[in-house]
Structures are given as structure tokens and as C-alpha cells.
Amino acid sequence: MIRIVSRCMLAALLLVSASAGGADRSAGNTVGVPAHGTLPEFSAEYELRRDGLRAAQLTRSLSCEDGDCRFLSEGRTVGLADLLLRGRIEEWTRFRLEEGRIVPAEYYYRQRARGGNDAYARLFFRPDTGRVSSRGDARWETHVDGETMDELLSQLRLMLAVRAGETEMEFSVVESDGDLDSYSFQVVGQELVETPAGRFEAIKVERVGGSSRRSTRMWFAVEYDYIPLVVEHERVGRETYRAALVDLHEAP
Q1: Most Cβ neighbours (<10 Å): which of 50, 140, 182, 233?
Q2: Which of 86, 100, 24 has the alpha carbon at shortest distance from 56?
């Protein structure tokens, strides 16, 4: 599944070019919460640059109440990209915390852009039966084995894996068209990273495998519960996207 705006112009902005979720496949459709015991609630703003030029802005937030959690992502094009595409994306995933595990429940995606590049997806997860159904542009129902989740929740899971000290991760995702995909990542070091929000000590993660024509690198903030600081996605010989943290608001 390739969405023209989110996977190309907004790929790095949405931090989806290298995300997917889960390491323990023996526990069904659930995701382990790190030993810290809680999820890091926050609101963060990012700026996407394509080959150094501003292309989009993104706001992401995570909030929980009585075990019910919502991870929200909203993005829009800016500058020249806005004149060409006028892209807007709203995306959220809803899940529950049950006995220290993340249980996916519902996923929503709405994209609007010039040139007919609109898309709508809505997935419903039933962990008790392993069934996932779609009621968006495409309608389908499928069965998934082990730890599998939507694309947005998988990105949160990658952050939690780094937070928990994992160094090699292989993740499984059900996409909006019903296909299953998997990605592999590894921690490659720790270094200082400069962003518009400041300079931070960060854990660097790279995607391994996949196409030799593309590379993805991510940096997670050590001092702020491993929230993503920078995501870089390079299409060799073509362009580089870089989404960087602009502002961060921690939950009170």
C-alpha cells in the first residue's frame, strides 16, 4: 500500500517510513509495555524538510485515561509543497493498557490532497479472536497471528522497544489494504543530535534489510522517554527527507 502524500512527500513527517510493531509474538495481538510501567504521555511538533527545504509540519500526541489510550498524528504541507499538494493528514490509533500490555482496538486515517490524492482507512481489532476488519475505502476482514497492529501504533511500539533497551527488533504490521508487512531495526549507537528544539543525547536506530536504494535512520531522546527527535529517510540518488523535533510538551 502506497499513499502518494504520506509515503512520499510526508513519509518522514509521519515517521512511518520505518515503523512497525512488536517483538514477542507469543502473546497474541498485544504489545508489551517496558519495565518503566507507564507510557510517556506527550505532545510534540515536528518540521519536515525535503533536501533542506521546508515541506510539512506535524503534531503528535499521546494521552491515556483509565487504561484507554490514544496516539494522534496530524500533518500538513507547508511552503512550496503546500502550493503543489495542499496535503492534510489526520491519523490516530486507539488502544488499551491491560496488565502491562498494549492491546490495539481501532485505527483511523484520513488524507486529503490536491490531484485526487484522498484516502480513508478505518481498522477494527478484535484481539480475542485475532480478527482485523476494515471499513474504509477498502472493506475486508482477515486473521492475524501473534503480535500485529496498525501502522501508527507500530511506530509507538518502536519507541517503546528502544526505551526498554532492545537492540534488535523485528516488527509486524497489518496495512490498510489488509497486507501484512514486517521490518527489522537495530540500535547502532548513541550520539548528540541537533534539532530546532535543542541539542539532545540520542539513541540511533537504523532499518536493516529492505531495499538498497533506500535507507532510514532515527534518533530517540534519552532524557525525554525516548521520544523521536529526528527521522531521516533517504532515497539514494534522489532525495532526503528529514523530520526534526521543533517543540515538546510533556504531560503534567
Answers
A1: 233
A2: 86
